Amino acid sequence: MKRKEVVEKWCTLRASEHDAWVASAVMGAEVIGGNVEKIPEGFRPVPRYTASISEAWKVVEKVREDWILQLLDGAGWWSVVLLSDCEDRSDIDPVNLPTASEAICLAALIAKLTKE
Question: Structural domain of residue 45, as residue ranges?
């Protein structure tokens, strides 16, 4: 996918669908029915990655395995910049959204899914 396609899809989804997309594409979870993820002990609701900064921080930790992440507080916006730590890929341009957790999640999806 291209960045534009990821952003366009993001804009068509509800918050719960954002969370399910992050769970499967970024966190590697098996999501069932859009709102439940399979775990070794059984099943649990998909974490609210886009609504809870503590859940979004789990996404940060996952992204930091492959990227250098900068989180910036702007006037009414949060901005996430992902910097490449290797020569064969480019940095991810800033992602700006009203909440830090949303910006973190969209930036993570762009990093994981784009092939530009």
Answer: 3-113
CATH classification of the domain holding 85: 3.30.2120.10
pLDDT of residue 115: 64
Element (H, E) at 102: helix 100-113
Please tell me the distance from the alpha carbon of residue 37 to that of residue 73, in angstroms, as a whole number: 31
Tell me the pLDDT tens digit for each residue of 5-39. 999 999 999 999 999 999 999 999 999 988 898 88
State the total domains in the chain.
1
- pTM value surpassing 0.70: yes
The b/e string for 22-47 (b: 16+ C-beta within 10 A; e otherwise) is bbebbbebebeeeebbeeeeeeeebb
